[in-house]
Q: What sequence folds into this?
């Protein structure tokens, strides 16, 4: 008669071990799980750890990566810098204020 073996979800075991000891490194977690009879490598622990970090909120609906909207282009003709400068000038309260702030930054930077 064949032996019945229950499969262990290694990733879930790794997540539980990380939750129990969040400051433990991959090698330490792999060693602790190895003592329980679960064979995992530190590389697998690192992979699960990184997947847990990246899967929280950096993807939009249906798992699509967020980024520029479809059809948008990056301007390389210098207009984006001009537009940013205009927004900055308006944001600080005018050209005179912008000049004062730039002079202050230059002075603080030692230019």
A:
């Amino acid at each position: 008669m064949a032996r019945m073996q229950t499969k262990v979800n290694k990733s879930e075991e790794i997540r539980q071990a990380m939750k129990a000891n969040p400051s433990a490194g991959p090698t330490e977690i792999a060693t602790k799980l190895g003592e329980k009879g679960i064979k995992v490598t530190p590389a697998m622990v690192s992979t699960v750890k990184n997947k847990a970090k990246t899967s929280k909120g950096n993807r939009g609906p249906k798992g699509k990566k967020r980024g520029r909207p479809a059809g948008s282009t990056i301007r390389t003709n210098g207009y984006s810098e001009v537009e940013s400068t205009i927004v900055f000038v308006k944001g600080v309260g005018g050209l005179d204020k912008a000049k004062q702030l730039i002079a202050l930054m230059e002075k603080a930077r030692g230019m």
